[in-house]
User: Fold this.
Amino acid sequence: MFSGTGAGFYDLHDNFLDVFAPDGQHLQMEPADLFINLKTQLFVAAVTSNEPDVSPVDTIDSLFPRDLEADLVGRHVGVPLSPNEHAYIHNANQRREYLSSMCHDMDNIGEFSHQSIVNFVDTIQS
Assistant:
């Protein structure tokens, strides 16, 4: 995706809001959906990496923190969250719960991994 620049999924994750909602702007729905799908791909990559120190629960907590609303509010202080931002928070929390419910079943994660890649590619292409 970023060949030649040294940037990867984790770099994109860490800087996503700065790129897609700069200077206090509201996060729009399409980038918000892309961000949730990116976070999902990072989760799948982490838990299927066979690294013994990777905890699915810790990975979910890192990628889908419970303080998403506070983070977005802090990006544009004094300005209410947009409907798209509320939808992003809702959708991210739903994804967090879904991943949490399946994170201890590697067979489910494998099946979900394949489907989430298809969804991620579809999101990028649209």
Remarks:
- The helical segments are 9-20, 29-47, 56-63, 68-75, 83-102, 106-125.
- Residues 9-14+26-125 form one domain.
- The chain has one domain: 9-14+26-125.
